[in-house]
Design brief:
Oligomer: heterotrimer
Structural class of chain A: alpha+beta
CATH class of one domain in chain A: Mainly Beta
Number of helices of chain B: 18
Largest sheet of chain A: 5 strands, mixed
Strand content of chain B: under 5%
């Protein structure tokens, strides 16, 4: 039994080492890229170490007891010990002290991490079934699924939901926070490393829960300003006679305008579906579950409910030519 | 075959053997078997649901089952394992053992006891009928590629059923209602049972058995039943409110109508957290009985273990919002619940240390019950430690709703509760059946289950921290989740194989196992002083108890060094006891079987279905008939004397 | 398992069971009352219960229910004197007072519905109706229990000690339901 346990432990350790040494995966909470996620890991690491030590001590005690006190058939009965008050006191007080020691930095971290940042970027997040909407009130931008933020800037997320309870979670940047209809919740996050970080809705919200994803793109301040300037432009007008123009006509006539907004082309009183004005500037579609590529766009437009069962976007039974034209149009919307 | 007449409105002869004798039984040992076998069948079903889940998750972006089917399966898996497996199996142990351990002939309210079982079965039937009868829907405005299969038509809002997702707008159709009604019915069954068992523990102890001379299992059962008594009403209120929101247009949890979805979460977890202690304490009680017997030493720190259990029960009502750290509750609330959650780790640790100290210095025999009991301590420690990491609030903001939590609760519920239950099933098998199980096969079961269990759930700690969220029917490829999901699936099939070994052992040994003596394990508590299996009345003569572990002290003295010395007359004493209990001087009076608990149970089942179909004429008629049935059953029940004069 | 057996606590087993059940009911009503308290202060659309509550009327019906506890005590006292006729009389009086209380609730609620406050108007009205509705259901069950005691007494020519225990148990239940009403009346009607 000892050999088996030893082998298993080594295997696990090896796997963990591999994970640690390799490139950080996009949602690795052990690879924080910002102060909030760092703070959490700084708190978690010593706690995990303490827990690991306790684990080793307790399991070692069990293994030792099992080996040392096994019945060897010598016929000697053990002493009938009923207890030891001093031991009881010791193993009550020591854990209490350890926990008290852990509690203090925990409470401090809770207070610090829930204090909203002053200055920085404000973004309003709205959860929908099954995508996250992002509104930048100061820049007057509305987008979805891909959150673009400048590096090194605190971001104040003010969040709610349009339908059911969802949860906004980008592990490499911060812990998660639920978004609740009729209420506002807040999350502070920041990234100090340029790059792309993935997230996932983390509160069960129905059929599309697994497909409700987030991409945070952290760019330099310069690139962010350029992005803002692009996003503030109305939609690109396709040249006459091009497939893109045909696509735009289809967009106007096939019912897309009842849900999707394209600035300068269609408007919608209520936000129902992602804003497509600059869809081509994002590399994911369908709440982050598919990519902005020819293949995925074709599959999606051909039958949205097949790609995301429960989808609010119906199957319009578009012909393959129509789909090509629409894709051509969408690709112009940078 | 003796026939016994009952009084009351239904004058009928009720047989003492055969199918109907089981339906009308009020014998706690039979009711325990009913709970046990029914619970085990649900364990297999819940396990199959888990295997389907694991097959889907074996590969990323898999299409083995649809999202709708996945959502049904994980909802039903969780609901089944909690409400239809661990709780009834615990009820089986409490029902079987409490009178035997306390020196009583039956429980306080034998017919109420039976009623609890029938309500549990009814609840399970209603819940599972959703696979066949319920209609799942998409939220208004949503589209599906094809109709939802039967597999996808069971309750599908998660075992916690958070609104608004479980509300009528986002879950039209009837699947949620089947869950709500089924669980409400099963909950009433648990409540009824808890009233009975609490009264039994308080009032039916043998002369001389003060509370501090009671076995630890009885203490843990007491705490469990208090927890049930106080937490079931709260979930019942939450369920009623959600039913009203869905059916009668109220807006308790609808933000648009002025309601508050988070209120549901508070109500649910006010029940939900005590519930997890309800799930683990019986297993802790079992382990507290098994470890001393196979260490040949008394439980170390009996008072500490008892008081730690009481503390856990008490504190368990003060930690509920630790399930809601990410739900937008304020920082002060989060800090307070983080601290209260840390506090509950202390009595939990006390128990673990006392169990290890019990083994320390003992003479350990590694029978199957002992292996599972030791396994419990080892695995529960892991689950307990990961639980404490959850109490570090900001850490929980990463951990909650990920597979890290799934790892945690499977370590405490499977490595904990189920291992404890298997320990108990093997330990009391001789008493229950009068035969010995096959030791070698049982050891294979243990090792295969131990390996499979750890292979399934250990990687989930890692998967969660790498970003795998719960309740997702698939995950993206290439982000570090692929390999360990596959390993986890393999582990699940190892678990399933080990369960087959257990079943083979049980079925075979029941018929062909070696005959078991009264006291095969040289044990400590009263149930080992009566024949295996016990006569219907348990004790021919009610024992008088002089100490904790009284039966042990009837067999053993202690020498000057504190070691046990077997009394020369120990074996004859056991033989005399066996004879005395098998052939008592006066045949004890026993409560007669009764048709009214199953009739009331049937009426409740009818009422449940009537309510589910209340919009139809058939449903309305069913409601009317069922209410009449309930009234008639209870009236007749109260007129029926407990014992017939024979 | 009858009242004659020695019990470990000295308390009759069925009484202990009833106390256990009632403590569970206390949590049931506690959750419902808390619910009402949570919603009653919120700013909600539609008519709020506090606009329509008729304190004088409900004070009278509360008094009626309170009196029914008195008649319940008198029924028990009559049984200890073995005065079966008086017992039945007081039990019937209790049931009648309870039914009157229910009648008052029905009248009050139909008035509310006429005024435009229904079950689904807003969460405060919903909590109000659910709370008082479940309480009313409990009173109704109590009335049925009382009537069945009277029925037994008539069928058997009186209640024996064994059945006297039943009367005590029903009495415990009845007093509990009354106490819950006092809490509800205070919290819902009197404290604004």
């Amino acid at each position: 039994m000892n050999r088996l346990i030893r082998r298993a432990l080594l295997a696990a350790l090896f796997a963990l080492l591999l994970a640690a040494c390799g490139q950080a995966t996009p949602m690795d909470s052990f690879a924080p890229a910002g102060p909030e996620a760092h703070r959490i890991l700084d708190l978690t690491t010593p706690v995990f170490i303490i827990a690991g030590v306790i684990f080793l001590l307790v399991e070692a005690a069990i293994v030792f007891a099992v080996w040392k006190f096994r019945d060897r058939g010598d016929g000697v009965e053990p002493k009938q010990i009923h207890g030891n008050n001093r031991l009881e006191l010791i193993w009550t007080i020591i854990p209490a002290l350890i926990l008290a020691g852990v509690a203090i930095p925990t409470v401090k971290a809770v207070v610090d991490l829930t204090t909203r940042p002053s200055g920085g970027l404000e973004v309003k997040v709205t959860g929908h079934q099954w995508w996250f909407e992002f509104q930048y009130p100061d820049q007057d931008i509305t987008t979805g699924t891909v959150l673009v933020i400048p590096v090194g800037t605190p971001v104040d997320l003010e969040m709610t939901s349009a339908d059911v309870v969802h949860s906004f979670w980008v592990p490499r940047l911060a812990g998660k926070r639920d978004v609740i209809p009729g209420q506002t919740t807040y999350l502070k996050l920041q990234s100090d490393e340029i790059g792309e970080y993935w997230g996932q809705c983390a509160e069960f919200c129905g059929l599309g829960h697994a497909n409700m994803r987030i991409r945070v793109q952290v760019v330099s301040q310069q690139d962010f300003d350029a992005w803002v300037a692009d996003q503030e432009q109305p939609a690109v007008e396709p040249a006459d006679g091009t497939p893109a123009a045909a696509g735009k006509d289809l967009f106007l006539n096939k019912g897309c305008t009842s849900c999707h907004v394209i600035d300068g082309v269609s408007d919608s009183a209520q936000v129902v579906a992602p804003n497509l004005t600059h869809i081509a500037s994002r590399d994911v579609i369908a709440g982050g579950s598919l990519n902005f590529t020819e293949d995925d766009l074709k599959a999606w437009l051909a039958n949205p409910p097949a790609m995301k069962p429960g989808s609010y976007m119906p199957n319009l039974h578009l012909s393959s030519d129509d789909i090509d034209s629409l894709i051509a149009y969408l690709e112009t919307l940078k | 075959m003796t026939s016994i007449a009952t009084g009351g409105v239904f004058r009928r002869r009720i047989p003492a053997t055969g199918f109907w004798s089981w339906v009308t039984t009020v014998d706690h040992k039979r009711i325990a078997k009913l709970y046990g076998y029914t619970g085990f069948v649900f364990f297999i079903v819940g396990g199959l649901e888990a295997l389907l889940i694991r097959l889907q998750l074996a590969r990323p972006e898999n299409a083995f089952i649809t999202p709708a089917e996945y959502n049904s399966l994980f909802t039903m898996h969780g609901t089944t394992m909690i409400f239809l497996v661990v709780m009834p199996l615990a009820a089986a142990f409490m029902n079987y053992l409490l009178p035997l351990m306390l020196g009583a002939r039956d429980v306080a309210f034998p017919r109420l006891n039976a009623l609890g079982y029938w309500f549990f079965l009814g609840g399970g039937v209603v819940l599972y009928s959703s696979y066949i009868l319920a209609t799942a829907g998409v939220p208004a405005g949503g589209f599906l590629p094809d109709t939802i299969s039967r597999l996808g038509s069971a309750a599908n809002g998660g075992w916690f059923m958070y609104p608004p997702n479980s509300g009528v707008q986002f879950s039209p159709g009837s699947v949620i209602d089947f869950w709500l009604v089924g669980i409400a019915l099963a909950g009433v069954g648990s409540l009824v049972s808890s009233v009975n068992l609490l009264t039994t523990i308080f009032n039916l102890r043998a002369p001389g058995m003060s509370l501090m001379k009671m076995p630890v299992f009885a203490w843990m059962s007491m705490v469990v039943n208090f927890l049930l008594l106080f937490s079931i009403p709260i979930i019942t209120v939450a369920i009623f409110m959600l039913i009203f929101d869905r059916q009668f247009g109220t807006s308790f949890f609808e933000a648009s109508g002025g309601g508050d979805p988070v209120l549901y979460q508070h109500l649910f977890w006010l029940f939900g957290h005590p519930e997890v202690y309800i799930l683990i304490l019986p297993a802790m009680g079992i382990v507290s009985e098994v470890l001393p017997v196979f260490s040949r030493k008394p439980l170390f720190g009996y008072a500490a273990v008892v008081f730690a259990g009481i503390a856990i029960g008490f504190l368990g009502f003060g930690v509920w919002a630790h399930h809601m750290f990410a739900s937008g509750i304020g920082p002060i609330t989060q800090a307070a619940f983080g601290i209260s959650t840390m506090t509950i780790a202390i009595p939990t640790g006390i128990k673990v240390f006392n169990w290890i100290a019990t083994m320390w210095g003992g003479k350990l025999r590694f029978t199957a019950p002992m292996l599972f009991a030791i396994g419990f301590v080892a695995m529960f420690t892991i689950g307990g430690l990961s639980g404490v990491t959850h109490s570090i609030v900001p850490a929980d903001w990463q951990q909650t709703d990920t597979y890290y939590v799934v790892a945690h609760f499977h370590y405490v519920l499977f490595g904990g509760a189920m291992f404890g239950i298997f320990a108990g099933l093997y330990y009391w098998f001789p008493k229950l059946t009068g035969r010995m199980y096959q030791e070698r096969l049982a050891k294979y079961h243990f090792w295969l289950m131990f390996i499979g269990f750890n292979l399934t759930f250990a990687p989930m700690h890692y998967l969660g921290l790498m970003g795998m969220a719960r309740r997702t029917y698939t995950y993206p490829a290439g982000i570090g989740l692929d390999f360990w999901n596959l390993m986890s699936t393999i582990g699940a099939f190892l678990i399933a194989s080990s369960v087959l070994l257990f079943m083979a052992n049980w079925i075979n040994s029941r018929r062909r196992g070696a005959l078991a003596p009264t006291d095969p394990w040289d044990a400590r508590t009263l149930e080992w002083s009566i024949p295996s299996p016990p006569p219907e009345y348990n004790f021919g003569e009610v024992p008088t108890v002089r100490s904790l572990d009284d039966f042990w002290h009837q067999k053993y003295d202690e020498d000057d060094a504190g070691r046990s010395t077997r009394r020369p007359d120990a074996d004859t004493h056991i033989a005399e006891l066996t004879e005395k209990h098998l052939h008592p001087a006066h045949h004890p009076h026993l409560p007669s079987p009764s048709a009214f608990p199953p009739l009331a149970g049937l009426s409740a089942l009818g009422l449940a279905f009537g309510l589910l179909y209340h919009a139809t004429l058939v449903g309305q008629v069913l409601i009317g008939l069922s209410v009449l049935g309930l009234l008639a059953s209870f009236l007749s029940w109260s007129r029926e004397p407990l014992e017939e004069n024979m | 398992m009858t009242a004659h057996t020695e019990t470990s606590t000295g308390i009759d087993t069925r009484k202990l069971g009833m106390w256990a059940f009632l403590s569970s009911e206390a949590l049931f009503f506690g959750a419902l009352i808390t619910n009402y308290l949570l919603f009653k202060g919120r700013d909600l659309q539609g008519i709020h219960p506090r606009e329509l509550l008729n304190i004088p009327f409900t004070s009278v019906s509360s008094f009626v229910l309170l009196m029914s506890s008195l008649t319940m005590v008198l029924a028990h006292a009559a049984l200890t004197r073995n005065d079966q006729r008086a017992t039945r009389g007081w039990l019937l009086a209790t049931a009648a007072l309870g039914a009157t209380f229910i009648g008052g609730q029905v009248y009050e609620f139909s008035n509310f519905y006429r005024e435009g406050m229904t079950l689904s108007t807003n969460p405060a009205s919903s909590s109000f109706f659910v709370l008082t509705g479940f309480h009313g259901a409990h009173v109704t069950v109590g009335v049925l229990l009382l009537l069945s005691l009277v029925g037994w007494s008539l069928l058997r020519g009186g209640l024996t000690f064994e059945h006297g225990l039943n009367l005590e148990l029903v009495g415990l239940y009845w007093h509990f339901v009354d106490i819950v009403w006092i809490v509800i009346f205070t919290v819902v009607y009197l404290i604004r």
